[in-house]
User: Fold this.
Amino acid sequence: MRMTMQYYRANTVMHRMDALTKFLWIILLGVLGFTISDPLMLAALVLALVFVTFGLGRLPAGMVLRMGFYFFPLSLAAGFFQMVIRSHGTTVLAHLGPLAVTSGGLQFGAVFGLRIMLIAFASLIFVWTTDPRDLIVSIIYLRVPYRIAYAVFVALRFVPLLENEAAVIREAQSVRGVEQVHGRIESLKRYVLPLLLSAIRKSENTAVAMDSRAFGAFPTRTYIKEFRWTASGIIFLMTFAAAGAILIYAAALRGNLYER
Amino acid sequence: MLQDLSFEVSRGEFVLVLGASGAGKSTLGLCLNGIVPHVQGATEGELIVAAHRVREWPVSTLGSKVGIIFQDVESQLCMLYVRDEVAFGPENLRIPSAEVEQRVSDALQFVGLQGYENKFVFELSGGQKQKVAIASVLAMRPEILFLDEPTANLDPRSTNELVDLIGRLRRDHTILIFENKVDQLAGIADRLLVLDGGRLAFDGPVREVLEEHGDTLVNELGVWIPQVSEVELGLRRRKHVRSAVFPLSLNEAVEQYAPLNFRGEPARTSAPRPVIALKPTIEVDRVGFRYDDGTVALRDVSFNIRQGEKVAIVGPNGSGKTTISKHFTGLLKPTSGRVLIDGADTHKLSTRDLARRIGFVFQNPEHQFVRDSVRDEVAFSLRIGGMDEAEIARRVDHEIEIFNLKGLEDRHPFSLSGGERRRLSVATMIIAHPEVLVLDEPTYGQDKSNTVRMMDSLFKALAEDEAVQEITLILVTHDMKLVAGYAERAIVMRQGRVAFDGPTSQLFLDPDLLRDTNLEYPPLFELSRALRDRGAMVPASLLRPEDFVASVRALQAIEP
Assistant:
């Protein structure tokens, strides 16, 4: 699980694309996902993401499937839940105990599940293909003060270190035979104290080390890598926007817009 | 932290600073680069660096005059990529990006990491991270460099590379370096500052200070000095042999000691206790181990450790030595093969069973503390064993006495000093009378007095308590001085396999093995080998200063 929600390093169209375009792309997909309520069209968009994942991003199938393993049942469950509580529509297709599955409910469930899948999938593609460094560079381009941007970045860097530390503490304490005597609350306390101490010490060390390298000495700083819009990104975004426009038009003709 | 400290360092000097933990070394570093008082803390008196009063520096000059390489390399690196890490300082100084790029490539070239620009920092080895830390400071073009225990957690080969690098840095920089591992540095430094409790204890040329005050440094201030210097002090004290030049480095020692007379036979000050029992306590039988991420850490590892043996498991970082030792406690179970403890497969033993038989002291002792006072901490494993309180109190008092923790009984374990924590963690293990005690990197970050106190307490505990006299002791380390000093047998791991298994003295007879495993000879072994090459009749198994001193015949003229 740990490595599956992180940046996957590679050199592909999706990886080279600037982070802001990709971010706009997620927003575009969000808009499309919530305006179109035709399950077939949404399914087509999800299929397009499959192409983006493997065709453009060349992400490893194992990693994608492992994440799919978490998100697919989630969207399915959400869709199913929507299906049984939305009972409008005329035709009753089946009875599940006291609940009736109607044709309208079925369609709504499918739409709802596909929407969740679409947004989650797009966000994952963003995380997998966006170098955290490009992310800071883009945030700074949006005029967020560099001190804040870097503070967030460095804090995120601590997460895996602390995960590691927690694993070591668990091992170190199990050697002393704590399992036999400690209740849940007690073992949590025993866990948190060394972890907190080490987090404080590490972050203090990092802060002093950054200060001694003149971090924050000036209101601005220079960058060896600056934000640049990429042509591939613009083409990518335009393609999706055009396809989206067509889908919305078609959905409007079939009366499948904004259905609640 | 620091009191009434006065000294001057001239441009281009190379100053070695010694002091036990808590002597104020790190604080001095922060004062020099202006973090104190600009960012934290307060100072009295005047500190002038590069002709500027530090107190009047604009904060923006931080780092461009004095570069600090911190002790904790892991947390001083804050970026994802090597290139960004090295560029971080100059970018903060608003250097134009083209020049930053140039500085990055110059600095990486200098430390020997060209081509590593796009590597992730966290993927590098300890030695490489240390080099990145140095490069990232060099890119800011400081005049003065300040290194805080740069070799503390490096294996011997990386240590040598770093010492070479420091030797090259001194050409263009004034250098102050704090180190506990001084065998290679003492010979190349110009000057020695010794701190004690925040005050300056000694200051002068390295040779002079060690010659006049070496005994005080070792016995009272608890700092490491080069082993060849320890030998010289021992020879003077016990054999009335006095070299013309007080040796600081191996070469000097060889020059001085070549004319000496040695006893042909090794005269060990303490002969290793013969291993009586033949019963294996730990049997490792064709063990393979693969981590979840697919890394194969052990391949076909087999050895037996018998009851009462004192064994060192050594190897460079990443060789599998910690992985195999975790198999003894059941923290890891073999992917293939078997590990047997007293004949029982660890797959079938419960954690509780194993915890009772095997004591394991982690590299970072505070991870193992589970109680709020020293007394309860020591008593913990007896209490879960359900022993009656009177007996517990008796044994706890005994351990606290032996491990020098008297007066600290009611303190919280986390409030102790580094050395005290480590002794406490050993005490908490010994009190349960385990059959085996594993110490993982016991000397990591420890000064001389703490290391010696811990090992002395441990051996005292073993000698005084019948129940643990036959304990099996396993040291997991790459500190060859520790191996030479305390282990009768060494198991060398290399790339997940056993590369050597035999008596410690035999280990040093195989130069290829040591080279291939990034290990090194203890300084004294090098010394006796070099002397033998010169025709001196030095025994082959001299590993400790006291052994060497004992093997020298006192001068005829002085003998009665």
